[in-house]
Amino acid sequence: MKTMKITISIKHALLPAAVLAFLNSAGAADIDAGKSVFVHRCAACHAVGPSARAGFAPQLNDIVGRRAGSTAGFTYSAAMKKSGIVWSEKNLASFVKGPGDVVPGTSMRFWGIGDEQKVANLVAYLQTFKQGGPTPAR
What CATH number does the domain located at 29-126 have? Predict the structure, then answer.
């Protein structure tokens, strides 16, 4: 029986690991990028953080797990109140992409965000604002 000697350089051996690491990070949400999306696309109407209050739109602290149309201090559309939605990451992302598609008749005047990565970043950022937990200094 003849033995074959196989030589693989470290560079070639690590290539699959590097590709896998890149693919795993490619769709990961970026909270800092989500903050930027919030500041540029949401903050004119919505607020987050310890001093967040309803104004032109509801505050978004603790949004995931909250029933749509239930925040005190804001008058929601009938459509939002009747939607029966409890916000999850998935349906919140869908709403951000197309508010009128998820809640026809919503009073939210926003065209939506078509870039799925920006939506994921925004949802990740919003989830950092929990009433019962620490709020980041952002």
Answer: 1.10.760.10
